[in-house]
TrEMBL record:
Top-level taxon of origin: Bacteria
GO molecular function: hydrolase activity
Name of the protein in its database record: Alpha/beta hydrolase
The keyword Transmembrane belongs to this UniProt entry's keyword annotation: yes
Keyword field contains Membrane: yes
Length: 292
């Protein structure tokens, strides 16, 4: 009787061991396959975040202009993150397109520091899902207005856990009010103070372009130039390259900046891995941009 019980327990143990070994082998094979897919990935998306009150459709004109005359146009995938953290997709990444454009918008797209923090957290939800689905190992980032602030909060709070696997190659912020409506750095908002306090978490090898619109000498019609330039107190001496650039002329008003011809040219030249040849625009102020 005792021998029978011992044999039963032995069979049970061998069966469980076999199940565990099989599961472990399957997990190992899947893990190796996923790692190989990630390492060999040629995908390098451009991920864009719009500003307050704007949706995932905000960059449609920008993308259309980038794709105009392009034999290999960038495909466009849009993600909308609702307040319950669910992701809603539209568009698609075309097979063979290694540099698609992905736009992440939010149901809560309101202004204010508290909302920006929530949007950064929800962007992290979307980013994690995108990285898992598409296995890219690098990307480029563009944020218009508050989109640049959301990216800054994301980089300081959430990105460090991805940094070893996913490289952010370049970041461009467009008309981003790092100090909200304050014109002077002597009056720091809580948001700017927090950005400065956490800036050591920013990726050291990052290249950043901070673009300001100058419809007037000191504003793009909405955001003070001093607030955009306050970004240097966050990024300067923390990232590899930090460049401030100003644009003027047509479409230099804050809401028009994403489709400004000079900014389209800047994105094409400095943000894309496979830029299309473009005619150099004459007398463009951004050619005098300063590198810090």
């Amino acid at each position: 009787m005792k021998r029978l019980k011992w044999l039963i327990w032995l069979l049970v143990g061998l069966t469980l061991s076999g199940i565990l070994i099989t599961a472990s082998l399957r997990w190992s094979r899947q893990n190796v396959a996923d790692l190989s897919r990630w390492r060999n990935s040629k995908l390098s998306p451009v991920i864009m975040i719009p500003g307050s009150s704007a949706t995932e459709n905000r960059f449609d004109r920008l993308v259309a202009k980038l794709n105009a005359g392009n034999k290999n146009p960038h495909s466009l995938l849009k993600v909308r993150v609702t307040n319950d953290d669910r992701l809603h997709f539209s568009g698609r990444i075309r097979q063979g397109d290694n540099e698609p454009i992905i736009v992440v918008g939010f149901e809560n797209n309101h202004d204010g520091y508290g909302n920006i923090q929530q949007q950064a957290r929800r962007f992290n939800v979307a980013f994690k899902a995108l990285a898992t689905q598409y296995s890219f190992n690098n990307f480029k980032a563009i944020g218009h207005s508050n989109g640049g602030l959301i990216y800054t909060a994301f980089l300081e709070t959430y990105y460090p856990k991805y940094a070893r696997r996913i490289t952010l190659k370049r970041l461009m912020t467009i008309g981003s009010p790092y100090n909200f409506n304050e014109k002077s750095i002597h009056h720091k908002t809580q948001m700017l103070s927090d950005f400065i306090r956490r800036r050591t978490r920013l990726p050291a090898n990052l290249t950043v372009y901070s673009v300001a619109g100058t419809q007037t000498y000191n504003s793009d019609g909405l955001v003070p130039l001093g607030s955009v330039m306050a970004g240097k107190y966050v990024y300067q001496e923390q990232v590899k390259h930090y460049t401030t650039i100003s644009v003027s002329g047509d479409d230099a008003q804050h809401s028009d900046l994403p489709q400004n011809a000079q900014i389209i040219d800047l994105i094409n030249r400095y943000m894309l891995d496979r830029p299309q040849s473009r005619q150099i625009l004459p007398n463009t102020p951004y050619l005098n941009g300063k590198t810090e």
